[in-house]
Amino acid sequence: MTLKEVYPPNTDSRFDSYKAEHAKSISNPSEYWGQKALEELEWFSGWDTVMQGSFLHGDIAWFVNGKLNTCYQCVDRHIEKRGGDVAILWEGDEPGDVKEVTYKELLRRVCQCANAMKSQGVKKGDTVTVYLPMMVEVAVVMLACARIGAVHSVIFAGFSAEAIAERIAAANSKWFFTSDEGKRGGKTIPLKNISDNAMAKDVAKGIVEKCFVYKRTGGKTGWTEGRDVWMDELSAVQRPYCPCEIMDSEDPLFILYTSGSTGRPKGVLHTTGGYTLWSHVTAKNSFDLKEGDKFACVADAGWITGHTYIVYGPLSNGVTTFMFESTPMYPDVGRYWDMVQRHKFTQFYTAPTAIRSLMRFGDDEPNRYDLSSLRVLGTVGEPINPEAWRWYYEVIGKEKCSVVDTYFQTETAGHVIGNLPGVTPMKPGSCTLPHFGVETVVLDAQTGKEIEGNGVDGVLAIKQPWPGITRTCLGDHERYLNVYMKPYPGYYFPGDGVTRDKDGFIWITGRVDDVLNVSGHRIGTAEVESALVAHPAVAQAAAIGFPHDIKGQGICCYTTLTNGYEESEDLIKELRNAVRTSIGPFATPDMIIPSSSLPMTRSGKIMRRILRKIASGETDTIGDITTLGDPSIVQILIDKVEGVM
Ligand code: ATP
Ligand code: MG
């Protein structure tokens, strides 16, 4: 099958109704969101004003003076109707190690955790740092914090002691959650010991008063009397009911750090009303959630994708959400598909990087499993190149599932651009059209003027506030204004380049800082990478610019090769040609560097800023690499590039 340019929904009328509803949602956002907030959430008391503030002043507030509790939305309100349904389905590192937690049981566990925290002095407004592996307890702790009004700051369990220490200090967090150890891909990770090192670092010393420790493996750990508390024991003796704190719509719900792809991670703050509505509505719309669905997002809870689409969004919608402790490669590359078959997931949500790496192992793997329960497949994190989209759609979805390409950021709380299954068309490689309430525009990067019409490119911006927009950066409102609000006054600036195609569909071309400018031609990194990945030899590709005497910028492409392909001069020539024929001679890469892996953030994104430094020979100013999965790859690439130049 060759890839079609567009896959329309079965009926045009549904696309028309999307257009009408979208137009309504942006022409009168207060009316639209006021009504949605009433229909979709339960409020203890109503608001005075639906929305106030602007991007210009960075003072946005939603549902002003409205009162609600996010944990109540996700747990309590389902008890009467579906208390016996499974809320969380968990699978551990070893296949078949499965736990199910019903809504009723979840409520009891959340309440015991909440009461345990209160018994130790945790109060509304306190920040609670959470450094847990993918245990059910991550969700329990997040919900318990929401219940008592504490602000959680979840740190992905792959982070180092330095990164944790910085985050404890930045939030001045007296409360800390971890587990004895974690399990991932057959390996044991000494989380408590890493936490001890973090709490002992100079920046964090003396800040944490209580360190709550869950048991995951029963392995040996260090112990500080007076500070450390076994959480399973403390919870077990608590009353399994705890009333919900009545929260203001604008009370903080959580802090979360961005992935750190472009620099020092930003501590983004989300608030109660707007976030809860955004996670609920976008989860429902993007994945067509229905009663009885088993929704599987295989991200980590420590990223925005996990916060919104493992915990808050699915639970608020009352479906079963899946939590996965392991990796797609453990014990073998069929793990995801084996789980789809065993659990009969209705939706499956992952990142292009996972799709590309599984695609390298061919179609036979997924074809061994029954994947017929799937209705919707989702992708997030980076532009998905059409080649990987096609594999996802054909081989995993058997051409029967919708593939939703969801564009969002830590800062946007949830999806802001993406197709809606069965409603709007799919276009491989394009994240398609904005969600309700999101008014996207294309700006001229230099003048900041809106570019009208279709078949245009520039930078992406959003014209008016939506409920999920982050309200500030932790302890640094100035940075919030500088990064998002000031570059183009009056607009929210996500930092991504964009093309609006002839049909008005949106294509993310890459980070604005990464756009290639070769002899005056502006070329999106995503376009070059797609051309490379379309070649069977290439598994992953990252295109970056480096200073070039004649052209201004040259293009350097780092690639990892598919199983069975060897690095050779002929292959490099062939890859160069592949880009040349696909885009044009001006886009021919100057350097192609095959390697065993690429520097990835721990959330699985390629860190181009590091690749740029390496290609430019600026190896003494590489910058923050604390969010890098495997730092040793940096030196390997430095040596390779020096060998070529
Ligand atoms: P930092 O902000 O610290 O540099 P980050 O931007 O990688 O890190 P996230 O908030 O996890 O942190 O990622 C958001 C970014 O990911 C978006 O700005 C965009 O560049 C990219 N992205 C996410 N989803 C998509 C998608 N569906 N298509 C294209 N790009 C996407
Ligand atoms: Mg970002």
From TrEMBL:
| Keyword NADP carried by entry | no
- The residue ranges of the AMP-dependent synthetase/ligase domain are 76-466
Annotated membrane-spanning segments are none
Could you say which EC number(s) this protein's record lists?
6.2.1.1
Q: Please indicate which superkingdom the organism of origin belongs to.
A: Eukaryota
PROSITE patterns per UniProt: AMP_BINDING
Which Pfam families would you find in this protein's record?
Answer: ACAS_N (PF16177), AMP-binding (PF00501), AMP-binding_C (PF13193)
Instruction: Describe the reaction catalysed, as an equation.
Output: acetate + ATP + CoA = acetyl-CoA + AMP + diphosphate
Stretches assigned to the AMP-binding enzyme C-terminal domain: 527-605
Kindly give the PANTHER family that the UniProt entry links to this protein. Answer: ACETYL-COENZYME A SYNTHETASE, ACETYL-COENZYME A SYNTHETASE 1
> What protein name applies here?
Acetyl-coenzyme A synthetase
- State the species of origin: Triparma laevis f. longispina
